[in-house]
Amino acid sequence: DIQMTQSPSTLSASVGDRVAITCRASQSISSWLAWYQQKPGKAPKLLIYEASSLQIGVPSRFSGSGSGTEFILSISSLQPDDFATYYCQQYKNYRTFGQGTKVEIK
Amino acid sequence: EVQLVESGGGLIQPGGSLRLSCAASGFTFSSHIMNWVRQAPGKGLEWVSIIYSGGSTYYADSVKGRFTISRDNAKDSLYLQMNSLRDEDTAVYYCAREPSPYGPFDYWGQGTLVTVSS
User: Fold this and answer.
1) Cα B33-B57-A51 angle, rounded to 5 deg
2) Terminus of chain B with fewer CB atoms < 10 Å: N or C?
3) B103 and A91: CB-CB below 8 Å?
4) Set of chain B residues whose Cβ sits within 8 Å of the Cβ of A89
């Protein structure tokens, strides 16, 4: 089974900061990686698919990069609405989520 | 408009059984891969099971042999039969759709809470 590991687990940042979250796969998943945002009590929302493609309606301050086993989700200028938990997910072989990264207010 | 609505959650004793349903609308249900994902209180997302358009199914090791995913394309519905429930199965259960032919989870239901407790 493919394991997904995110870092950091928690990230403290301020509005306007540029932030980056890393996701590593236990084996190559090519570009079959997605990123989701989840707020308390809500279902996750798809942000990025195929490692770097922006889902329709998602602000352009979100971007994704990487391939193979290392991936990054970047937020260019953190906005108040962006404080949430972020998950990566592989969909190359079955489906697996990372453990999540909580972005909190510094 | 794509909609996924889960139902069937509730309080159940350890060892009991429960069947979750997910009613789909707004898209051609039979053409899409469907999944169940769960989230224990205060924890992260855990993929549970997948069912392909053709009916093939796969499960996370944590539920293999106890849970069964199924679909009724005539009723635009997805199901999760959960047997031999354990305390650690307590979670919000989401159904999630993949775009055709496959991909990430582009639509999610609102979730249904399953609580396993004596």
Assistant:
1) 45
2) N
3) yes
4) 45, 47, 104-105
Instruction: Give, in order, the Cα–Cα distances in Å from B99 to each of A96, B30, B90.
Output: 17, 12, 28
Distance of CA A37 to the CA centre of its chain: 7
Interfacial residues of A (vs B; Cβ cutoff 8 Å): 1, 34, 36, 38, 43-46, 49-50, 55, 85, 87, 89, 91, 94-100
Of the partner residues A50, A87, A91, the one whose CB lies closest to the CB of residue B45: A87
Render pLDDT for A39-73 as a digit per residue (tens, 0 to 9): 999 999 999 999 999 999 999 999 999 999 999 99
| DSSP single-letter state for residue A42 | S
Name the 3-class secondary structure at A22. Answer: strand
Residue B101 has pLDDT above 90, yes or no: no
Residue A59, helix vs strand vs coil: coil
Minimal CA–CA distance to B36: which of B81, B74, B85, B75? Answer: B81
The amino acid at A16: G
CB contact under 8 A, A99 and B44: yes
